[in-house]
Structures are given as structure tokens and as C-alpha cells.
Amino acid sequence: MLDATRVREDFPILATGSDGRRLIYLDNAATTQKPRRVIDAVRQYYESSNANVHRGAYALAVRATELYEAARERVAGFVGAWGPESVVFTRGTTEAINLVATSWGRAHVRAGDSVVVTAMDHHSNLIPWQLLCREREATLRMVGVTPEGAIDQDDLRSALARGPRLVAFPFVSNALGTINPAAELVRMAHEVGAAVLIDGAQAAPHLPVDLQALDCDFFAFSGHKMLGPMGSGGLVAKPALLDAMPPYQGGGEMIAQVWDDRATWNRIPHKFEAGTPNVAAAVGLMAAMDYLDGLGRGAVAAHESALARGAIDRLGELDGVRVFGPRGDRSGVVSFVFGGIHPHDLATIVDQDGVCIRAGHHCAQPLMRRLGVPATARASFYVYNDVSDIDVLIGALRKAAALFRVSV
């Protein structure tokens, strides 16, 4: 496992606990904390390189542009993309998926077509397709989830038999911790002629990713979930698809020539980056990727999986705990309910011991209905967590049980 004690030294916020307690941050599936390297990269950009990109001939603008495009190349290398032209910077996964639904979707989905999603999808990979299918009079087909927390392969084959235009699924479930067999799912979808979008929000921060090997058509990710700044992330797509897609938004930068009544478009990926980009966020994202590669992404994945399994074992010591998701290979996400105590109450009580967990439906309401619960508590681990954090969590849960007179 990673030396989390040493790693924590790189994160200033983790030294901000109160009453002699350190901060136990277990809400990493929602957003991650930022190491000094990322904070310094953003600060240094604003102190020494801030200018608008691509259009300035002076040295400062050239330097800003070089940093911005270097970040694009870094993303491409980090996820095994087809090249830097494959990378469109967005505010994160949500905007990236909306870009595909709005641009590619409107160009390809027609009345009578179908789009396939799964019951474990985050709302960000569901609502855009709901809106598109309603607009285009297409059918949205939701594939079920097995009791073990996997995508129901039989149900998926049934949905694929209809020949959908697109299949969208999460690489890793933010609510169950399931690591889906992405390459196999892509192959199955391509066999029936469907395009494939992978929600990579919970994969890019935690697993080695090689998009060329996966052969997916679209991959969306968020920088803030992988130690990068808020409002950073992107869409990574096959260049031929991006080249054929119409623009997502209009404005500066995305044009080649403009006349009174028409315009032509810039080359990819700039065609999809209208307006002034968040250059500082891209620079910070590049620093985050450097930091993760310094730790080793295989080591990161193994560290989180070990913590998740350890947490599940410790939760099993408490009566009345139900843990959701697979028991074998999984990500660092552990969702559970405990003794009839509402997850929001649990989160409030454990916070008194400096423990930060998430409570709610995790933007996965269709999944919660299938699980038969309105909400779950969720502890999600990352590079700065270790077994001592699990110990504190279990102790805090015992206090919650005592408060609510729940037997443990």
C-alpha cells in the first residue's frame, strides 16, 4: 500500500483538523483534495504566465498558450488517447457528456432510434440522454443491475438486439464501487454498430486507462476528482468523430472564417472550445496527473481496493450494516446503510469526530430505487487515506449507534 502518512504531508487541508484531531476525508468520490504541487501550479500560472491563449503574438500569450497545449498533450498521454487533437477541455464530466449528447446526438439520433444506459449511471450520464431522446422521439433503454452490483449482461444483450445508436455506461460506479468490464462492453456495443460513451469520472483518478486499447468512441472525465482544480476535465474522443460533429457552442476561438451570415469552423479540438478557456485549471490538471503518475496508478488502484475491502470487513463487525456493491475487485467506494439510522444523520454525527463521508442518493436515484433504499452513506478512499482512517470511522459509527440506541 502507499505510504499515506507521507502522502498526507503534500495536502495542506489535511492538517486543518480541530480539537487535536486530524481531518479524516472520506468523500473522494465527490471531489478530492489538492496537493501543493497543484496549488502551486495554479498560483504560479497566475503570477507569471496569465494571458489569453492562441490569439496573442506577445511573449506572455505565447507562454500561456504553450502551457495550455502542453496540458492537452499531457491528458492525451495520461489516458492513452489518439492524440492531443482528441482532447476537448470542458468543466468536467457533466459538460463533456452534454457536449456529446447535444452535438453528436442531434446529428445521429432520429425518431425510433434507441440509446442504452444502465441503472448504475450517475445522473450526468442519464439526464442528457433523457433530454435528447425526448427531443428526437427516440427510446431510452435502461439496463438493469444484478444483486451483486454488476451490469446485467443478459439485459444488456436484449437492449443491444435492438441496434441502439449509442451505449453509455460508467467505467466505475460512484455508488457501488463496481469496476465494469469496459473493454468487453465496448466490444459488445460495437458489434451491433453502436457508438460508445464511457463515463470515466471514477476511473481516470483511480485506474490505469488506455482509450486506444478500450476502443471506446467517447470518454468523459473530471479533473477535480483526480487532485486537479474544480472546473477542469474533458472529453476525449476519436478524432474522426470530433471532426464530423457540429459545434457545441458558438463564439470566439471555435471559428475559422466569419461572414455576415455564415461561418466556418476551426480545426479540432478548438471547434468545441468557444470563448476564453480556463487555462489555470488545465495547468493545475497537468500537475495533478504528474503527481498521480509519480505515485503510480497501479499502486493507487491497489491501495484503494485494499482500503475498501478492509472497510467492508470492519463494517461487518457492526450489527445492522448492509454494504452495497461487489465483494471482490472494486474501487475505493463503499456505500452502506446502518441500523435504520438515516445516512444524513450518520454523516452529521461522524463529522463530530472529523470524519467526512457523503450521504444521499449520490446522483443515482434509479439505482437507489432498485436497491430499495432512499439513500446510503458512502465512504470513498484515496491516496492519503489509510487503515487508521477506517478505525476512526468505525469508532464514530459506534458513537452514532449509541446515540440512536442501535445494537452493534
What do these coordinates show?
The protein has 408 residues and is an alpha/beta fold. The protein has 2 domains: 4-30 and 296-403, Aspartate Aminotransferase, domain 1 (Alpha-Beta Complex); 40-293, Type I PLP-dependent aspartate aminotransferase-like (Major domain) (Aspartate Aminotransferase, domain 2, 3-Layer(aba) Sandwich). It is 40% helix and 15% strand. The protein is built from 14 helices and 15 strands. The chain has a 7-stranded mixed beta sheet, with helices on both faces. Helix 8 (211-214) links the parallel strand 6 (195-199) and strand 7. Helix 2 packs antiparallel against helix 10 (279-295) and helix 12 (343-351) crosses helix 14 (387-403). The longest helix has 21 residues, at 59-79. It starts with a helix and ends in a 5-residue tail after the last helix. The relative contact order is 0.16.
Could you outline the blueprint of secondary structure elements for this entry?
Elements: H1 4-8, E1 24-25, H2 36-48, H3 59-79, E2 87-89, H4 93-108, E3 114-118, H5 127-136, E4 139-143, H6 153-160, E5 166-170, H7 182-191, E6 195-199, H8 211-214, E7 218-222, E8 233-237, H9 239-244, E9 255-258, E10 263-265, H10 279-295, H11 297-315, E11 321-324, E12 333-338, H12 343-351, E13 355-356, E14 358-360, H13 365-371, E15 376-380, H14 387-403
Helix pairs in contact: 2-10, 3-10, 4-5, 11-14, 12-14
